[in-house]
Amino acid sequence: MRADGTVPGRISRVEGTVRIVGAGLLGASIGHALMRAGVDVALADTSRSQLRLAVDYGAGRAAAPGDAPALVVVCVPPDVVADVVEAELRAHPDAVVTDVASVKLQPLRELRERGVDLTRYIGSHPMAGRERGGAISARSDIFVGRPWVICRDGETSARDLALVESLALDLGAVPIEMTPEEHDRSVALVSHVPQVVASLLAARFVPAAAESLELAGQGVRDTTRIAHSAPELWVQILDANAAPVVEVLDALAADLAELSQALRRTDAPGSRRAIAEAIRRGNVGVERLPGKHGQRRHFVSFVVMIDDTAGQLGRLFGDLGELGVNVEDFRLEHSPGAPLGLAEIAVERSILETCVEGLEARGWRIASTDDD
Fold first, then answer.
1. Is there a domain that residue 5 lies in?
2. Which residues cross the membrane (predicted)?
3. Taking the CB of residue 106, how many other CB atoms lie within 10 A of it?
């Protein structure tokens, strides 16, 4: 590491100083990744405590009055994005300004209504994050392999667009161009509504008996994982993207009402079919989600029982490596009240039988396979 905190040996596509306004989770994570690539990162935040924490953790240096950044990345809450973008455009007339807000259309409309010159502004949004925020939770790798939406318009110069794309590529993300309207409709479906659904489902646990919650397995934990998010932030996000979110919620509410009606009278003609079709449509929808390397491929899974002792997981992966198995996906679930774990491993269907037989020969207990 150099004296300025940067790491030699990695070449960045972004040249010059990058100013990051907002040293929370995303801002500090961007700072960490750019610092590792040898970029001069200048951090600014209205919270002195947050700024000092991000600097102490190595996300960059504190911004100085004489800085002349080539790129400004605005990482602030949605309700102040337009204010900060406007201020940064005026303060740094030679810099390209982007932001990472999860809603793109509302701040753009606000800036246009104010008559701000948006020639050097390019809205963007990395589809990455964590359940917990703040500089202390920041990581340089949270953008790796994740989409980074870039919203250009007719006034965007090729040079400025290339700079924002270079930022995404430096962080290991995959740049994707969308209009602000396309972006907001898309995130309503794949991000904002899932947050609402997870939160509403998790809220049903509040009045539930403790005995009921003791039965919770990995399925309910997967479904409600994102329910831990900050209410203050999500009030802003949902308010800024209300119309597309309402459209999806209304459609989901209609589906729920139809399913509830079928369950009220399961002996009525067509009820069982309606229930089956609801589950089947879910199967089809899940299969449309891009998987490993963006491929929509369906893998098969098997479950291995693992003793809850040190070294067992390492031994399992070592045996899989000796068998020449490429693990496509992995999930570990702990069995409540029992000293063991259940490792669900996804592989290509063509090697399932060989893989299971090889592990059993090495003493592993197979709990189930997709072919059972």
1. no
2. none
3. 19
- The answer to whether residues 276 and 309 belong to one domain is no
Do 273 and 323 fall into the same domain? Answer: no
C-alpha angle 74-242-97 in degrees, rounded to nearest 5: 15
Instruction: Tell me, yes or no, whether 281 and 314 share the same domain.
Output: no
In this structure, is residue 129 part of a structural domain?
yes
pTM summary value:
0.78
The label of the residue with tokens 């455009």 reads 89
Residues near 335 by Cβ (< 8 Å), separated by ≥ 6?
A: 341, 342
Contact 313, 321 (CB under 8 A): no
Give Cα 229 distance to the centre of its chain: 12
User: How does pLDDT run across 87-127, given as a tens digit for each residue?
Assistant: 999 999 999 999 999 999 999 999 999 999 999 999 999 99
pLDDT in tens, 40-74: 999 999 999 999 999 999 999 999 999 999 999 99
Question: Which token pair is 310?
Answer: 């040190």
Asked whether residue 7 is assigned to any structural domain, the reply reads: no
Is the same domain home to 265 and 329?
no
**Burial level of 289, CB count in 10 A (0-12/13-18/19+)?**
exposed
The strand pairing partners of 41, in sequence order, are: 18
- What distances in angstroms separate CA 262 from CA 130, 256, 274, 334, one per listed residue? 37, 10, 7, 35
Q: How many folded domains does the chain comprise?
A: 3
Determine the structural domain holding residue 212 and report its residue range: 186-288
CA angle, corner 188, sides to 163 and 198, nearest 5?
Answer: 120
Please report whether residue 204 resides in a domain: yes
Angle at 51 between CA 11 and CA 170, to 5 degrees: 20
Residues 268 and 154 grouped into a single domain: no
